[in-house]
Design brief:
about 170 residues; about 60% helix; about 0% strand; mainly alpha; elongated
């Protein structure tokens, strides 16, 4: 199992060859350090306004592929998730749910057949099966190789989308 522990500010200062005081000036606590290292994985996908309902599968696939670019940022994503879990109740300080918005954008071609609440629910269902949380479970708990983990998450997203589309006929 991989460690989810983020380095302390002291450890970062030593590794960077700077004084502890300088490090703490910029990063007063571990969450500040994690926020500074948190990746901007990709820009929000932009979809064509003239895409019709038939384009929904391709649009969702774009978002899934963005979510599956995990290994490049895995240490930062693990640290951010750990920070969120340590923070307790309330809004997650580092995880704003932007991927849910991406999925909502991909699904908007189904409106007006789908009400906004149905789009939101489906976006949440899609996000639940792809991303760092699913990755950690597959890699650390189920001991699935990374290539297989990506395939499983892609297949799960496809199943969620097919199920939702079947409901509207």
């Amino acid at each position: 199992m991989k460690s989810t522990a983020a380095p302390s500010t002291d450890e970062v200062a030593r590794a960077a060859g700077i004084s502890r005081a300088t490090a703490y000036r910029y990063f007063p606590d571990q969450d500040a350090l994690i926020r500074a290292a948190y990746p901007e994985i990709a820009d929000r996908p932009h979809f064509s306004d003239d895409d019709g309902p038939s384009a929904v599968t391709d649009r969702v696939r774009v978002v899934v592929d963005l979510q599956l670019d995990i290994e490049k940022w895995e240490p930062q994503l693990r640290a951010a998730l750990g920070s969120t879990l340590r923070s307790g109740a309330g809004p997650a300080p580092l995880r704003g749910g932007r991927a849910i918005g991406w999925f909502e954008d991909a699904l908007t071609v189904l409106t007006p057949a789908w009400p906004a609440e149905r789009v939101r629910q489906t976006a949440i269902r899609l996000r639940a099966v792809v991303g760092i949380e699913a990755w950690i479970w597959l890699i650390d708990i189920a001991s699935v190789p990374p290539t297989d983990a990506r395939s499983i998450m892609r297949d799960n997203a496809g199943a969620v989308l097919r199920s939702a589309l079947d409901e509207i006929g």
